[in-house]
Amino acid sequence: MKRRQFLQTAAAIPFAGVAVHADMPEVPALIERTHAPQNLEMNFASMSDVITPTPSFYVRNHFAQPKIDLKTWRLKIEGAVEKPIELSLDELQKLGSKTTPLTFECAGNNRAVLKPAAKGVGWQSGAVGNAEWTGIPLKDLLGRAGVKKTAVEVILEGADTGTVADLPAPIPFARSLSLEKANKPETILAWSMNGKDLPASHGFPLRAVVGGWYGVASVKWLSRIIVTDCPFHGFFQSLDYTYFERTHGLATLLPITAMQVKSLIARPTAGDSVTAGNPAKISGAAWAGEADVAKIEVSTDGGKTWNTATLSGKSVPFCWRLWEYEWKSPTAGKAVLMSRATDNRGQTQSMERNTDLRNYMITHVIPVEIEVR
Ligand SMILES: Nc1nc2c(c(=O)[nH]1)N[C@H]1C(S)=C(S)[C@@H](COP(=O)(O)O)O[C@H]1N2
Ligand SMILES: [Mo]
Q1: Burial class, 127, CB count within 10 angstroms (exposed 0-12 / middle 13-18 / buried 19+)
Q2: Cα 34 to averaged position of ligand 1 atoms, centre (Å)
Q3: Alpha-carbon distance values, 86 to 141, 144, 225, 265 (Å)
């Protein structure tokens, strides 16, 4: 991306207006991180609306996008249920629907800042988005199938398959939810994104969206739901997408589930410059998974002092919140900007990276170095 002067006039313009877009650099909607499988991230510096437009919403694929024929596609619900079910999309849509916005972030978002370089897709800040989803709560379907008393988890299986490290035969993409999370109203099987049919890259014809959890839980191209009476230990929650938690001093590997409190600066971006003495607007987004964002603080001196930023709009459950801070009088020289979010449970982003989190959950405060001229 071309270095540019960060336009301070933006500070005087309403936060989420068309005029803000006029200040944005001319960049493609999505940046390609890998080609096959396709992994695309938004240019986070262009983020300006609470709802991420579908063409700007990141794409995270582990395998090739499956080809699905709606005529033969069926959603199957089986396993520890009284009555297994098979439904076409038409049949599913007749069972009722609800529309709700939800934010999810790839657990590897911002991996590009990790040192030494971590394995996995080298995301910068754009593997996160907030969209409006229409579908049926998973709970409603589980109710129809009748979950047996012995059940503990619900496995969601996608139609995409491929090979992974150490496994010779292809496996489908699959993740499980605790029965508790599967029955929460924020766990939805969605056929629509921002008012239109799901695009193929986001899981047409049906995907899960799991409010408050990292994106990996939101299985795309959903084909099978398996209710199980023992915990699932599939690849994407036992080898990949896991982190270490310390219990009795021992590091125990756990699947990644709920998103941790996090904020990101969208603008200015690293390498931008602002004019000394002129007010500059610092803006971004923050989210806290199953909790609410309570506070955003901004530092313009590398973390020595902190000032409270303004959260815009109102708190919507499971959705990120945009925020902004007016930096009144930048002084000439290099400046290190930081943002730090706190949730309503009192959790605050840490200053240091916790290496037990492996190459996931990059939630520590990330400095943004700019120039004041
Ligand atoms: N079937 C399937 N579902 C999937 C994935 C996948 O590779 N296959 N990737 C997961 C991951 S890691 C993320 S972060 C989200 C990304 O959803 P999006 O591509 O719609 O942004 O989808 C999840 N669901
Ligand atoms: Mo992800």
Answers
A1: buried
A2: 14
A3: 11, 11, 10, 45
Q: What is the bridge-based pairing of β-strands 222-228 and 75-79? A: parallel
Structure-token pair, residue 366: 């990330």
pLDDT at position 7 over 50: no
Mean of the per-residue pLDDT values for the chain? 93
Phi and psi at residue 47, in whole multiples of 5°? -65, 125
Distance between alpha carbon 51 and the CA centroid of its chain, in Å? Answer: 13
CB within 8 Å of 267: residues ≥ 6 apart: 6, 10, 45, 281, 282, 283, 284
Place of tokens 């009144």: 328
Condensed to tens digits (0 to 9), the pLDDT of residues 38-59 reads 999 999 999 999 999 999 999 9
CA of 215 to the centre of ligand 1 (A): 6
8 Å CB contact between 125 and 109: yes
C-beta 33 within 6 A of ligand 1: no
Atom of ligand 1 nearest to the CA of 66: 1
Ligand 1 atom with minimal separation from the 203 CA = 20
Dist. CA 32–CA 29, nearest whole Å: 10
- Give residue 251's pLDDT band: very low, low, confident or very high (50, 70, 90): very high
CA of 83 to the centre of ligand 2 (A): 32
Output the residue whose Cα is nearest ligand 1's atom 20.
202
Residue ranges in 103-243 assigned as alpha helix (H):
138-145, 179-182, 235-238
CA of 150 to the centre of ligand 1 (A): 29
- Ligand 1 pocket check for 220: Cβ under 6 Å: yes
- pTM score over 0.85: yes
Residue 263 has pLDDT above 80, yes or no: yes
Query: For 224-241, what is each residue's pLDDT tens digit?
Result: 999 999 999 999 999 999
Nearest bound ligand to the CA of residue 218? 1
* Residue closest to 77 by CA, chosen among 136, 149, 138: 138
